[in-house]
Amino acid sequence: MQQDKHPEYRPVVFRDRAAGYAFLTRSTATSEQTIEWDDGESYPVVDVEISSESHPFYTGKARTVDSEGRVARFERRYGGRPGEGCGPTG
User: Fold this and answer.
1) Single pTM value for the model
2) Torsion angle (degrees, nearest 10) of CA 44, 48, 52, 58
3) pLDDT tens across 23-54, in order?
4) Which residues of 43-64 are buried (b: 16+ CB within 10 A; e: fewer)?
């Protein structure tokens, strides 16, 4: 690597405030805020809106989508059922 062309790669804490979860990893992300970690060291902390602890896919709390409601909304928006003047066959 060429010197002075790449950002510093160092330990950083990412914190998900919604879930009350934080993890230490290495990153080039920067922050003025710091946090004292379990090992007694102080690291920069970056607040994130969502992480694996709060994302619906990983937590299993995904919102179910009403597929019948989606069809009805599509028909309201774009017209009637297929074959009623829609496309080359209608």
Assistant:
1) 0.57
2) 180
3) 999 999 999 999 999 999 999 999 988 877 77
4) bbbbeeeebeebeeeeeeeeee
